[in-house]
Amino acid sequence: MESIKIKPETKKKLTEIAGMLEKKTGKRVSYDDVINYLIEKRSKDRKTAEKLFGIAKGVNLYEELLNGRKEDENSS
């Protein structure tokens, strides 16, 4: 087993998430469980975002937005 250093604020946040997970599952959870939950959640969120925005992959959406606004201004 390894140990990692975290700031007290980070430990507090992990503890809050652990409490939420314990309430949700009815089981005691470890910090390892919390970290794995957060990793899994991020992975799911990323996959969902890729599905939603897959068409725009590799496109700088901010630049596209600015260009679209310039075109709108020029056509007004």
Question: How are the secondary structure elements laid out?
Answer:
Layout: H1 8-25, H2 31-53, H3 61-75
Organism: Acidianus ambivalens (Desulfurolobus ambivalens)
Protein name: VapB-type antitoxin
Can you describe this structure?
By secondary structure, the protein is mainly alpha-helical. It has one domain. The chain is 74% helix and 0% strand. It contains three helices and no strands. It is elongated.
What would the keywords be for this entry?
76 residues; 3 helices; mainly alpha
Q: Helical content, roughly?
A: over 70%
Strand content: under 5%
Globally, the shape reads elongated
Give the class from helix and strand content and strand pairing: mainly alpha
Question: What is the first-to-last residue Cα distance?
Answer: 65 Å
What is the mean predicted local confidence, pLDDT?
A: 85
Give a quick account of the main beta sheet: strands, pairing sense, barrel closure.
none
Total beta strands = 0
Helix and strand run? HHH
Whole-number total of structural domains = 1
Oligomer designation: single chain
Radius of gyration: 21 Å
Number of helices, where a helix is a run of at least 4 consecutive DSSP H or I residues: 3
Low-confidence stretches: none
